[in-house]
Amino acid sequence: MQKKLKKRLFVVTGVIVIVVIVVLAIVGGSTAHKSLTVAEAASGSHNGERVQVTGKVVENSYSFLGDVLTFSIYDEAGDPSVSLKVVYDKGVSSTFGNEVTAICTGAIDDQGVLQCSELVTKCPSKYESSVDALGVEQLFSYGDDLVGKPIKVSGVIQSGSLKPAGQGDRFVIADPAGGRELPVLFSDALSEEIQDGSTVVLTGVLNASGKLEATDVALKG
Fold first, then answer.
1. Rounded to a whole number, what is the largest CA-CA distance in the chain?
2. DSSP code of residue 193
3. Which residue, among 217, 13, 52, 72, has the nearest Cα to 130 in the 3D structure?
4. If residue 116 lies in a helix (H) or strand (E), which one and from where to where?
């Protein structure tokens, strides 16, 4: 009796192991991908394959149609004239922008477009001293005197204002104590450390609409 029971347990265990192996093989097969350069992915020889491609976002190549983001990437160490078109529709981080490093995973379609199912962006953090930087209230106290002139401003990013590049004001800052707010336009990449509540130091030009067209964004060092 015990021998029969042991035999049945052995058979059942063996079946379970086989099922687990098959499931892992299926899952692994559906998620496996090749790591390619942009040039390799753009060659056309990998259409229909699931791949992971890392590249820099081509300046001003991005556009939004509803929640769908379309942009191009290039090899940082390769030929900048060779690029790969990427389409992503799963929500974009506020770090996305020009020249950000984008790690794109998905399948290349018949037109050579990477239909991205997973997007990770990376940008190194920058730090800047706030010495000689104006506060937001101080900036507005000058009226129109500083419109069109290079300035340095420091402030706190207001909650809920951070957006990806290409979706209007990138974020809004105010003095630590609150008060008037300054909308900021910025199209380049932001580091992951820049979040709601971060104190940032900005360099740019105040336009006639009362918005700062930033050329550089750094964390207060």
1. 97
2. T
3. 217
4. strand 114-122
Structure tokens at 174: 């105010």
The model's pLDDT over 133-166, given as tens digits with 9 standing for 90+, comes to 999 999 999 999 999 999 999 999 999 999 999 9
pLDDT of residue 9: 44
Half-sphere exposure of 181 (CA within 13 A, CB side): 10
> Tokens 């580091």 map to which residue?
191
Which residues of the chain carry a pLDDT beneath 70?
1-32
From 86, 92, 62, select the one nearest 163 (Cα to Cα).
Answer: 92
**For residue 128, which phi and psi values (nearest 5 degrees)?**
-145, 140
Ordered DSSP codes for 38-94 = HHHHHTSTTTTSEEEEEEEEPTT--EEETTEEEEEEE-TTS-TT-EEEEEE-S---T
